[in-house]
């Protein structure tokens, strides 16, 4: 955002975050079991409701700050809410993001026991051969802005990092 000339956000910027699940609480509890004391970060990291608010506070944004958890569609729903807010005039720009992190064995075990994960780790949405979903760590953030033609930002994508696991991936897919 800095490369695009954006230094201040203020009242015209909303924060809309998709956040699927929270395994941070499991990680914090494991740390406590190893003798590490609980602290404020344990509380803040384990509550999805705080995600958008912390980003909003850090960037000094005064627009809407909304975190949504609608499972796999969380980021898409956050994007839709941001577009609606811009169209309705509740904000001129929106920072939209989504995050899903695998932080504990417990969350993975629950999904395996619930038969939620695809047997081969591949998601096939709406496919006849779908057997569940493929799970991975991921994070994406984008800036949306009302377009009026009088102001233009040009930004450079700083980093793209893609890690693909070939474990349990069938040959030829």
Would you kindly provide a written description of the structure presented here, covering whatever features stand out?
The chain is α/β, with parallel strands linked by helices and 173 residues long. The protein has one domain (13-145): Thiolase/Chalcone synthase (Peroxisomal Thiolase, Chain A, domain 1, 3-Layer(aba) Sandwich). The protein is 28% helix and 16% strand. It is built from 5 helices and 4 strands; from the N terminus they run βαααβαβαβ. The chain has helices at residues 24-33, 40-45, 51-59, 74-88, 105-113; strands at residues 13-19, 65-68, 93-100, 138-145. A 4-stranded mixed sheet has the order 2-1-3-4, with helices on both faces. It is flat. The two termini are 37 Å apart.
Profile the largest sheet. 4 strands, mixed
**CATH level-3 fold name:** Peroxisomal Thiolase, Chain A, domain 1
- Mean of residue pLDDT values: 78
Helix proportion: 25-40%
| Count of strand segments | 4
Name the shape in a single word.
Answer: flat
How far apart the termini lie comes to: 37 Å
CATH C-level name: Alpha Beta
The helix/strand order is EHHHEHEHE
In which order are the strands of the major sheet placed?
2-1-3-4
- Per DSSP, what share of the residues sits in E-state strands of 2 or more residues? 15-25%
| CATH architectural arrangement | 3-Layer(aba) Sandwich
Number of DSSP helices? 5
Radius of gyration: 19 Å
Q: Quickly give the structural class.
A: alpha/beta
Number of domains: 1
| Uncertain parts | 164-173
CATH superfamily: Thiolase/Chalcone synthase
